Structures are given as structure tokens and as C-alpha cells.
Amino acid sequence: MELSGEWRLQHYEVGQVPPLQLADPGLDDRFWMTAAVPGDVHSALIERKLIEHPYYGHNDIKCRWIEQKEWWYRTKFQLDEAPSRAERLELAFEGLDTFATIYVNGLEIGRTANMHRRYVYDVTGIVNRGRNTVAVKFDPLFLHNRDKAQMQWSSYTKERPWIRKAAMNFGWDWGPRMVTTGIWGKVYLKRSKRARLDSVYARTDTADKDRATVRASIEAKCFDRSAELTYRACLIDALGKTAAEAAGKLERSCAELSLTIDCPELWWTHDLGRPYMYELEVVLYAGGQETDRYRKPFGIRTIELLLEDEQGRNAFAFLLNGVRLFAKGSNWIPVDNLIGSAPDKRYTDLIELAVESNMNMLRIWAGGIYEKDIFYDECDRLGVLVWQDFAFANALFPDYNADFMDNVRQEAICNVKRLRNHASLALWCGNNEIDWLYDMKSSDGDITCPFYGESIYHALLPEVLEQYDDSRPYWPSSPYGGNDANDPEVGDRHNWQVWHGSVYPRRFGEPTKLDYSIEGVTFKNYKKDFTLFSSEFGMHASANRHTLEKYVPDEEFYWGSVEMAYRNKDTNHQKGILLMEGYTGIPSDIEEYMRFSMLTQAEGLKYGIEHYRRNKARTSGSLIWQHGDSWPGTSWSLIDYELLPKASYYYARKFYQPLHLTLDHEPGEPLKLWVVNDRLQAYSGKVMLQVYDLEGRLAKTLETAAEVGANTAAKLGEWEEPDILGGLAPDRALVRLSAPGWDCEDNFYYLRDPKELDLPQAQLTASVDAERGVVTVQAAGAVARLVTIDIPQGNVRMSDNFFELLPGESKTIKLRQADGQPMLLDRIRISALNAVSTTPLKG
Fold first, then answer.
1. What are the structural domain ranges in the chain?
2. CB-based contacts of 705: which residues, under 8 Å, 6+ apart?
3. E strands of 36-164, at which residues?
4. What DSSP character marks residue 535?
5. What is the Cα–Cα distance from 415 to 115, expressed in whole angstroms?
6. Out of 116, 426, 534, 813, which could bridge 385 as a Cys pair, Cβ 3.0 to 4.6 Å?
7. CA angle 277, 283, 284 (to 5 degrees)
8. What's the pLDDT score for residue 175?
9. What class has domain 763-842?
């Protein structure tokens, strides 16, 4: 029984009222406000209009008082029958944020100290037939960290290392401080008779096209010592037929079993095959009577982390069902600062967007949460692998404290057991950037103490995984490996030379250097990076116009305003200006800022990722920082807070295509034509390279025979720039790559940066067909650079946006509003960098 009915919420000063008085079943709480569970205090106050929305303007600062108060939740539930002697009633909380005391019928039953854990309490002897009351008190955090030793290093705030809570709550370089509290997970009451399943753990031992073996472990809790416990387990295919089954007896409430499946359907990422899911069913019997049942989707697949290739060279590559994968994806932060009230639909939308952009991996970043079940369920369903960080980010942690370490151990066990059956889960990772930054900060003299927390990632977590999940690889940190823990020759790498200006190469113990110059931050530095796996890299871009206008006061909506600066939480705003200065030029107003920053981010990521993909014989993955936003700001995200993709997202749809044509070129140097193939079949055919002047006239066509093997990259040809241009000025040239017989999109390249182009004025015309939900755009006069379709509405999906259009060509774009709302088609505006905004005619 889920306790999702009416909950009441109220706040008090710390110690204002004795706790037992507020927990008393007879307390009259009629005048408390109502609140949703799951949810959070901030969202309840927003809904009741007791605070202004904290995402608008500087309103988040007005809400700081919330974290200083004591907050109480109360609810009632009806029990038709009191538990019998052979029954147990357990009260489960899937998420309590963070220091809570729980009362049932006025009696304290437990205390919590970890947002990341699930808590279960036996309330059999406390509940009554009839009405029962649950009360939960949340302490302000300062009561639990004010007497703790401060760590020398804890990014953004010194208060968080002792508190097992989402680090981003305290502010990060893409979001504000918003310290939440409340019941952020489901609450339910479970009645069990004689025995219940405590754990079902299933993993694929072996799998190929002929046969697969699934090994399962069952643990039960028995409340009747005289009962013999037995089980029946089976795998059920998509047609409802039993593919494999086993039955037996539990010894000491445990059982090990094996299921063998002939001609199995394997789980693949969506780009390599079908993410096929069986149903795993386990039925528990006590004395021959069914007493509990587990049934959840289960994917048969093997996953390995390859650290050395066949030639004995270092590698960092995922093998899915024996196939070496190029990981294409992004880093995932929480979908909202108000985590508890974020709807499941927001998760589905963001993961669907990942799939639509050809991503096959998402990395759960350590400064957020172990995500909600909906995230992993959707990744299983849609065929997306998950890199899962443990929740330790950018700080030292007190591993010398036994109570803290026990809390961490229970957190790890809880989440490993919860997530280990998911086919999508590919890797456990100990932390984000701690090993790497500890050395850097020690070398700079910012840290002089021991590596507090080291034993968590290098001892405790491996021990937990050895006991509770032996089916997938573990990696101690990200980045990790080599001569400075961020070495392109070993392990995975975070490339923050681009954007942050980190100077490389660097070795352990060497002082860090930053180069805040155009050359130091430019995305052209990506070509110097021959990493084995790039797990974090990126650059800022503005949010879309609708998102900014919704949350920025009108009088502050201009380039250089205090409010626009407040949207950017990065440490040095000059980095973004330098990046644009070197590529597009410095924007002069808000319009140019939105366009220039989006274009720089999109072209920069394309530049870097195409480099990584051309080198796929060595490099095996690129995970962009970051996928979405938890708050409407300026950030590294591909998709802004209102679920509107930026230009970089639409670019990603193309540069992450499994079959992709790409050009390796620098000004004045040869043009090198490549094809990258991530598919498991070879391709042969013809590839065309066409050169246009910027008025759209075709100046040259080259056609070359092309062959590319399965899961490889191949160089097709190389031509000197003057030979390709044939007298055409390089600042007036556009190159188009196409392969008419292949399933891949055309790719466009300008041979000089935007600020150097002699770009003529283009004209755009457009028409909209409301019945079909499409808009058709046509260019005239010149190539239209970065054609942008803008609708003042959130969660709008388009088949394409931010694209190039040659004069005389037209493009039809499908539109839909993903929440099912009517499209504001009468408010569409279409523009380009070199074309004024136009309103489509109604078709």
C-alpha cells in the first residue's frame, strides 16, 4: 500500500515545539498545508504560492530561509486488519532528504542520515487496526555539520563532505544553491505472510546466438521458522512464453540457480540492435503457499571493460556481447534542482532525446543522485548504456570516521542491490575527479593533508561490489589512470583544456597551469587529444530564447545584464567570451550572444567528436558534458531547462550517426575525407565532395569510391586546398559531403571560421501546415547559415533545426509538442545568421 494520499506539512523553529507533541496521533493538523509525496518542501511552497518561483530572477536567494527550519510531514492510513502472528508489516521510505526522525502512532521508530538510502522499518507491533499516523521530522543540516571538522577541499562549500546528500544542492558551476528537504521517494506499507523475498540478483554468465546462461541468487526473510521455503524462477519472452525455468528449495533462506536459454534474444544498444527484454519472474512459497512474487524486465547481455587490446596496447573500451563499442553520449545531472517533485515524464523525454540524437551511453555524474528507477527502466527499454558514478564528487571525505564509513557502506549496498539487475548498467565508478584533483591541488599547495576518502574508492566500494555485484566492471574514479590520473595514454580522460584552459601535458606532482587566452581555451585544442576515452568535455552555450525570457525579468533581458550574468555559475565568465572571440567574434547584443554561443558550442563539439571518431581504432568513447539542465541557466548542456534542444543537440544527431562522413581540415592544409562506421556490417559505394560558393553556385564536384569495414573508420582521400577551391576564395566556400546510396546525412563544412567568412545576405521564406504539423523553409540569394526555427514554447521536438540551407533548396521540418499541448504555430519565427527573421505563411 503506497502512502501517497494526503500529507500535511508545517515548519517550526528548531526546538520550538517538543517533537512528541508534533508526532502525537491526536494532534490537530488541519491548519497545516497539504503537500505531495514524493516531493519536497520547495515545491509545496511554490504550489501554495507561499514563495515566488525560485528559478525566476534572483528568487532562489529569497528561499534560503527554508534550509534553516525544522520541517514536519504527517499522514494517516487505515488498516482493515491488524497483522497476525505469522505476518510482518514494514514501512518503507525510498527517499528521505536528509536527516529525518520517523514516528508511527507517536512512537519514534528510527532516524536517517542519508538522502541516498532506502529505509525499511518493522512496524508490526506498532500499527493498529483502524487509523494510524505517520509523522516525519526533518532537521536543518546545520545541526549535523556545525561541530564537524572542515575538510581542506570541498568544491563550492565546506559543509557538504559529512552530509550524504546530492552535492549539487549546495550549488555547482551550472546551478544555484538550493538545499532541499522532504520526502523525495515513495512511501509504502508492505504486508508479508510467513516470508518475503528480500533480494533477487540475476546476471548473464555467458551469451551468444546459440545459448545463454543466466545465474540468479535469491534471498528471503522468513517470519515462520517452521515453514519450508521453495521457489520457482523463469524467464518469459516477449510473446509470453517461458524460455527457461528452475525450481528448488531455499537453504537458510537463500538459493542459487541457473537458467539456460537456447537461441536467446540478446539486449543491445539501440544503434547496434534491439534492446530485447525478457521478464524475470521469481515466486516464493512458504509451506507450498505463494507468499511473494518478483517480476521485472531482464535483458540478457554481457558487458566488459577492455583495458588492453589484442596487440597489448592500453585501451579503454566497452565490449557489449563481445562487440567493441564506440560510446556516444553525454553526462547526466539531476533533471531538476527540485529532485523530489520532478515528474517521470521529464526522464522519459530526456532519454528519448538522447536516443534520437544517436547516443548509446549516459554517465550518471557523482554530484547528483543514484537516479530514480524510471531512469534505468527507460535506459533498459530504449537501449542506452549507463555509466554509474557513486555519489562522491570533488571533495575530501572523512573516511577516518567509523560512523560515516558505515553510512557510506550501507548506501553503496542499498544502491548496488537496487540497480544490479538492469541490463543498461555498464560500469560502476568510484567518484568524479577526486583522485585527479587531489594530486593537482596538493601539487599547488592548496591541500596539505592526507587523501581523506581514498579508502572509499579503493577499498570499501570494491569490497561491496565483490560481494553484491560481480557482473560488471568497476573503475575507481573519472578521470583515472596514467601519469597524472588524466592521462590520454591510460584510462579515461576529462578534456578541460578546451573551455577551462588547462595546460597539458602534466605529470603527477607538477603545478597546474591555466591559459586564459583565445589559444588556451579554443576548441581547436581537441585535435591534440588522442585519449583512449573522453568521458567529460564541452563548452557553454546560451539557453533558447523562450527559456531565458520565461525566467529573466524583461528589464534584464540584454547582453551584459546582471541577471544574464547570474544565469552563468561558472567561475570565470571570460572563458566563454574568449571562445567566441576566437571563432565568431564577440557578440554585441543578446541576439548575437544566443546565436554566437550556440554556434560555437555546436561547431566545437562537432570538431572534437569527429576527431575522436576518426581515431576510433584508439579512442572508444566521447561523453559530452552535459546532457540537460536542472535550472534555467547558461551552461554546457545540449538541452536547456525547458527541454528545448540547443544547436549542439541537432548537430549531435548528425555527428553521432552510426554511419558518418567527416572532413579533417585546417585553413591552408589538405582536406582529408573520412567515413566512420559504427555498424556491424561493411559498406561500399560512392561518396561525393561538392564545393559551392556562398551564393550557392556549384564550383566543383569530386566523386570517390568508398569502402569501410564493419565497426571501423576509413580515410577515403586527401586533396590540397587550392585544388579543391579551383580559384574560389576560401572565405567564400562551402563543402558538402554526401553518399546518396548510404543511410547517412549530408555534412557541411566552411573552410574558414565564421568571423572570417564573407557571408552574403540570404532571404528566407517559409510556410506552415498546421494540420500536418510541419514547416517548410526555403533560402534564396545565398547560403543560409544556421537556419533557426524558434517557437515560444517548451518541450518542442523538431526533426531538424539550426541547419544550413542552400539557395533554391527547401527543407520540411516536422514539429510536435512532446507534452501533447497545442503547438503555437502562429508564433513561429525563422531566421539565420545572415537572414532576418521571418514569419511563415499559413499553408
1. 7-144, 193-298, 324-656, 660-756, 763-842
2. 684, 685, 686
3. 70-79, 87-93, 96-97, 99-104, 107-113, 119-122, 130-138
4. E
5. 12
6. 426
7. 145
8. 96
9. mainly beta
CA distances from 248 to 229, 245, 254, 280 (A): 9, 11, 11, 16
Count Cα neighbours of 561 within 13 Å in the Cβ-side half-sphere: 17
C-alpha cell at 208: 551468444
- The answer regarding whether domain 7-144 maps to CATH 3.40.50.2300 reads no
User: What is the predicted pLDDT for the residue at 185?
Assistant: 97
Residue 841: predicted pLDDT: 83
| Pairing mode of beta strands 303-308, 314-320 | antiparallel
Kindly state the cell numbers that stand for 713. Answer: 573508420
Grid coordinates belonging to 712:
571501423
Q: In one letter, which amino acid is 455? A: S
Task: Please state the pTM of the whole predicted model.
Answer: 0.97
Q: Do domains 193-298 and 763-842 have the same CATH topology?
A: yes
Q: Cell numbers at residue 718, please?
A: 586527401
DSSP state of 543: P
- Distance between CA atoms of 496 and 734, rounded to whole angstroms? 30
Give the residue from 183, 66, 201, 76 showing the smallest Cα distance to 136: 183
CB 129 within 8 A of CB 178: no
C-alpha 270/C-alpha 276 separation (Å) is 10
Residue with cell 504486508: 191
**Cβ–Cβ under 8 Å, residues 6 and 75:** yes
- Asked whether 535 and 623 are in contact (CB, 8 A), the reply is yes
Which residues of the chain, if any, have pLDDT below 70?
A: 843
Residue in 72, 70, 52 with CA at minimum distance from that of residue 62: 52
Kindly write down the DSSP assignment for every residue of 204-240, as one continuous string: EEEE-SSEEEEEEEEEEEES-TTPPEEEEEEEE-TTS
According to CATH, the superfamily of the domain at 193-298 is Immunoglobulins (2.60.40.10)
3-state secondary structure of 679: coil
Per DSSP bridges, beta strands 683-693 and 698-708 are: antiparallel
230: exposed, middle or buried (Cβ count in 10 Å: 0-12, 13-18, 19+): middle
Assigned CATH for 324-656: 3.20.20.80
DSSP string covering 699-737: EEEEEEEEEE-TTEEEEEEEE-HHHHHTT--GGGEEEEE
Q: How far apart are CA 168 and CA 528, in angstroms?
A: 32
Q: Give me the CATH topology for the region 660-756.
A: Immunoglobulin-like (2.60.40)
Residue 482's pLDDT is what?
Answer: 86
The candidate with the shortest Cα–Cα distance to 431, out of 396, 393, 383, is 393
**DSSP-assigned beta bridge partners for residue 428:** 388, 474
Tell me which amino acid residue 587 is.
Answer: P
Q: Which three cell numbers stand for residue 729?
A: 576564395
The CA distance from 258 to 263, in Å, is 16
User: Maximum CA pair distance of the chain?
Assistant: 93
Which residues, 6+ apart, have CB-to-CB distance to 327 below 8 Å?
A: 318, 360, 361, 385, 533, 620, 621, 622, 623
Beta strands in 589-697 (DSSP E): 621-624, 659-664, 671-677, 683-693
Q: CA-CA distance, 561 to 553, in Å (whole number)?
A: 11
